[in-house]
Amino acid sequence: MLPSGITLYSGELFSQWQGDILIGALVNKEVRRVRLSNDGSEADDVEGLFGELDERIRDVRVGLEGEVYLLTDSAEGRLLRVVPAE
C-alpha cells in the first residue's frame, strides 16, 4: 500500500469509527480504516473502504460535522463528501 492522506477520525457521523485512522491508498484505490489496539502498538482491525469508486485516493480529511472528504487523483479528479446513508 502506498499511503497518501491520513487522518484520525473524531467525528460523530460515523461513531463506530471514533478514534480510528483513515489512510488514503493510491495504488489500492481505497481508504483503509485502521483501528489500533488499546495500547496503540498494533492494528486490531483493518478495513478497505470506498473501493467501489475505483479511483486513486489522494487525500482524506474529516469535516467539522464528522463527514469524510476524499480527494481523488484521476484525470477528472473529484472532491467527494461522504455521509452515512439515510
TrEMBL record:
Source organism per UniProt: Vreelandella neptunia
A Pfam family the protein falls into: GSDH
Residue intervals of the Glucose/Sorbosone dehydrogenase domain: 3-81
Superkingdom of the organism of origin: Bacteria
This protein's name: PQQ-dependent sugar dehydrogenase
InterPro entries: 6-blade_b-propeller_TolB-like (IPR011042), Glc/Sorbosone_DH (IPR012938), Quinoprot_gluc/sorb_DH_b-prop (IPR011041)
